[in-house]
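SAMPLE LOG
Freezer: B-3
Tube label: C17
Construct: single chain, 272 aa
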Amino acid sequence: MDIANLTIEEIKERCTEQENKIIEMYLNRDTQKKICETLSIGRYTIDRLVKKYSLVRFRDRKLSYCSNVNPEEPEFWYFLGLFASDGNLYLKSNSVDTIQFTLDDKDALESIKDILGFNNEIKYYKRGNKMRWYVSISDASLIKAVKDIMGSDCYRKTFSLKFPNIPNTECLSMFLRGFFDGDGSFSVSAIKGFYNFKIYCASPQFVQALYATLVSIINKGVHLYKEAFIEINSQENVYKLCKFLYSYNPTIGIARKRERAMQHIRNYELKI
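STRUCTURE (predicted):
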């Protein structure tokens, strides 16, 4: 049998335990330095194994997958909300659809990993003195679910994003939290311990639906400017928003935003 044409499963059957560890780390795109340090080997050992079995051809295979893609679970809607605000769906050169997130807050991506059962690591890079965290997901079942819910034309969604049909209150709470974790902010108000809420969306149809949804939750005090900016400023109305956002499974998402929301809730309830 031609060694160069073996499948990865056939290669692993021929390899020692240590060689299989090298293959696993190599295909996971760990650096040679990390592989050497972890397995106490030299670079020549990696190079020899890669050359022997032509492992280079496996480096572009889809290695990531999600074990839990369930739109009926409210937690899944947090992922959809974060995708709506900060996710990107694009077609890679090898014709594989990929969802990518790049965020300042690692905990949002950790929530995504837990929700989806995503098997790959969260990676990072530095922009100046700031850390940026990112993941790329190419799971076919996840891509299909996103297109079914958010629309098949969500590749370039900045100006055409559509507000999805959300099945129940818990799913709505999680969707809004995911969306606000991406594009919303709690800014300090003039009174210590309280916050104002702001969000921006460039899609006119999405922001109109979002505005109507927030009005249905709060009843009043939601302000829409220039068909793109939404603000909520009164202590009572921000309180109502925060209570709704964190009414279900509050630990999911960005901790720094949750802490501001909870502080506003506590201080408002002490006040009344």
